[in-house]
Design brief:
Number of strands: 0
Low-confidence stretches: none
Strand content: under 5%
Number of helices: 14
Structural class: mainly alpha
Shape: flat
Helix content: over 70%
């Protein structure tokens, strides 16, 4: 048999035909292009994350090991002294307590109020679109505008709040508001509720509108009253939205800064300070960048631990359900 005959004899025994080899190469090339495309789209976000998130966190942890004023290169290494100082500082310990208080008030008062308003505005009411816009409008305002507005409203004697109370004969309830250590946190929480409850209301309202009305109709036919329908139908189906609203409330309370800074700057006598305000005071007012960086690291760790715990034990079922639905729709 000549060499020409060997070439014409086709593929050797056990070797796939050329058409099959081409089909096997094609998916490999397609997978490579898909991975390359995903990588190219991921790189910009990854670079931004590294530059604006990862690197600052690492650098803050490095600076926290120094007693540094913020000028020149970090010097005067002190190790973990800044962190041990934190938990001996009554101001910072007070910040932790006030942060916990804001979290408890947000979860116990603000979110139930937002849920009640969402349920109300989910009914067929005349002008409900106007009320939705009215309640959501404060969230659109910046924290600076809100702070200046309520600083004028609660100004002692000349503010709108004291004038209204005086007009109805309750002038004895007025007072220093933000300047009184006994009332400053309650007044601040009132401002925070006015500012943020509309966001949670709209979030919960969107969740309510995603519940099929047939389920309520079936429960009504079975004889369930309004409270039973709300407890056994609405609340379980609204669970993922409520859990997300709780997560955002807790993280927001931990990182609260701008609204409090504009209104009280942490006063009087540190009675309205948060961790973020204490960090700012030490970093940019007292030029103790090492100590301020230690506060920022503690804030980051508190937020991270809470986020991981919440994701692992609370949001896991919602996330797994979403992934299952996505797989089922492919």
């Amino acid at each position: 048999m000549t060499s020409t005959d060997l070439k014409d004899a086709g593929p050797a025994l056990g070797e796939a035909p050329p058409a099959v080899q081409e089909q096997n190469r094609r998916p490999l090339a397609r997978r490579f292009r898909d991975w390359l495309t995903a990588f190219l789209f991921t790189v910009p976000g990854l670079v931004l994350f590294l530059v604006f998130v990862a690197v600052p966190i690492v650098y803050a942890g490095y600076v926290a090991l120094f007693n540094w004023g913020g000028f020149g290169s970090p010097s005067n290494f002190v190790g973990v002294d800044n962190f041990t100082r934190l938990f001996e500082d009554p101001v910072f310990l007070g910040d932790l307590w006030r942060g916990l208080l804001l979290v408890l008030l947000s979860l116990g008062l603000q979110l139930p109020f937002a849920l009640a308003m969402a349920v109300l505005l989910n009914q067929k009411l005349r002008g409900r679109a106007f009320y939705r816009m009215l309640f959501f409008a404060p969230f659109v305002l910046s924290e600076v505008i809100t702070g200046v507005l309520f600083a004028m409203i609660f100004a002692p004697d000349s503010g709108l709040a004291d004038r209204v109370l005086g007009a109805v004969g309750l002038d004895g309830l007025g007072g220093l508001w933000f300047a009184d250590p006994d009332t400053v946190m309650a007044t601040l929480f009132l401002v925070m509720t006015w500012k943020y409850f509309g966001f949670h209301m709209m979030l919960l309202l969107a969740g309510l509108q995603g519940i099929p009305p047939e389920l309520h109709e079936a429960a009504r036919i079975d004889g369930a009253n309004a409270w039973q329908r709300f407890r056994n139908v609405t609340l379980p189906l609204l669970g993922p939205t409520i859990r997300m609203s709780v997560f955002l409330s807790v993280i927001g309370a931990i990182q609260l800064f701008d609204l409090v800074w504009v209104v009280t700057q942490g006063g009087p006598d540190h009675q309205s300070e948060t961790m973020a305000i204490t960090m700012f005071q030490f970093g940019f007012k007292r030029y103790q960048m090492g100590y301020a960086s230690a506060i920022s690291i503690v804030m980051f760790l508190i937020s991270l631990v809470f986020a991981l715990f919440y994701q692992r034990y609370v949001l896991r079922r919602d996330t797994e359900g979403a992934l299952t639905n996505m797989r089922g729709t492919r």
